[in-house]
User: What shape does this take?
Amino acid sequence: MSETTAAISLRPTTATSKWAGSSCPKCDKAIGAGEGAVLCPQCFTPHHANCWRENGNSCAKDGAGARILEPRGRAGAPAAAAPDAPAQASVPASAPAPVAAVAVPAADAPLVELANPWKSARVVQGPNESEVFRRSVMSIVTLLAFWGFAVLVAALLGVV
Assistant: This one.
């Protein structure tokens, strides 16, 4: 097989996952809740993560290859322990650490700083007033010149 360049993510299967209960094309067993699954990047067929690896990091249905991106630091387990995950599934997980209390400011506490919508705005340098005046005068002169030319042509042709 050639070197795979695509990457797919390892997805945890829940009871509400679209692929829950689907059969893996490699082992023909249903993908149950709590199992890691990957979806083929071409045909989107769900596979067990271990079946994907055993098949040479490719789809058992159409042969599309992709490497699995392992989640890091989830549930306290390193990514290297992922292939042993089905064997460790029967081991109960330790209780989560208690969450530290967060200080909440009182309702009558003064605001430290009001939101300033112009804080990140920058000054835009436009033309100075004399430049604007010059452009306006030039526009009027140009329009008068065209109007005068049109009147002269009309007079020469005898339209007026």
Confidence is low (pLDDT under 50) at residues 76-85.
